[in-house]
TrEMBL record:
InterPro entries: CdaR-like_regulators, PucR_C-HTH_dom, PucR_C-HTH_sf, RsbRD_N_dom. This is Uncharacterized protein. Gene3D superfamilies: PucR C-terminal helix-turn-helix domain. Residues 15-134 form the RsbT co-antagonist protein RsbRD N-terminal domain. Residues 320-369 form the PucR C-terminal helix-turn-helix domain.
Amino acid sequence: MGDLFGVLAKRVAANARRAVEVYSRELPEWRAMGERDVAAPLEFAVLLRRRSVELASHDQPFTGDDLAVIASVGRARGRAGVSLGSCRRVLGLHTTLMMQEMHEAAADAELDDLLRMLNWLGEQGFAAQDSYIRGFLDGQRHLLPDAERVQRLAAALLTGDPAAAELASSLDMPAASQYTVTVVRIADPDFRPAPATRAKILDALLAMDRVPMRWTDRLEFAVLLPATDRDRERALALAAAFAESVGRPCAVGADTASVSDLRGAVALARQISRTAPGERVPRRIRTVADMFVELGAARLPEIDLWLREVAHRLSRGPDLVATLDAYYRHDKNRGAAASDLYVHPRTLDYRLRRARELTGIDPTTTHGVRTLSATVTRILADG
């Protein structure tokens, strides 16, 4: 039987060259880096493989000096402007290639050697990747503005990137097990903020509350707040400041989920924000509990058409949409709703009667609340 470690040691140079070729082929950023300095990536690929074989053959872990070298290479990549996505991708490729190299060398190897190598990689691979990522993020800190790093943290959390925890640590932001994801949607499809404007708004919001946040597109902004008793209050303050900054009505939706399910949370918060009405100054953070009727109706064209017909009937009355909106927002309190509308309670009563006459639905009943509140929300969401 052959010696697995001896075979791997003989193939270090060839395997390293192949690895660099794969990185360059699969990752444009690595290809550009290789064009500037061909020797450095190859030298590191050789060193990493040589030390892995040496240490695994004696069941020894990476030394502090080994991990420091790995971190220094990651730091150099971060300072070179390589993206976090490419960094994660190259680590995945490295793992795949190492497994392939072992498979190729194991044809005549002792089973014990193969198991020892697999066990060593399973234990030491995490330590090496952790050092590399830590160095990479430290290198980015010297290259990227703080606001851009915060946006990258938000993106990492929303996509479930394992590097999120380390990135949060590098930004001195406490990691949380649960987050409330708030999506603020600008209710003006023609609004096109310049990059400088977007950066200025982000900086201002970070000065208010230093939490993960990012522009997800030109009309949408996402904020991630650790789930606490005050998360909705903080989210509403940020949403109001955002709306004031853009000078456009904004709709706000939110959902709370564990850190492992934030991808689903942002999708639901986005749907809520697209169904909720826009407001010049957002007055509430809407969740699925507030919008489940409207969300369901939006997915059924027949129900949506019916709500539009009810809305058309309401449009024939005097300020009925605004009246019903205030009436339901104040939980059917006539005095509070009338005060909000700056009208006499009798005027409010007249408008409620007129809504019943036009739609055949009594706004004060349970049926009326379910139907007309959904209709009003639909109208306001359409602007």
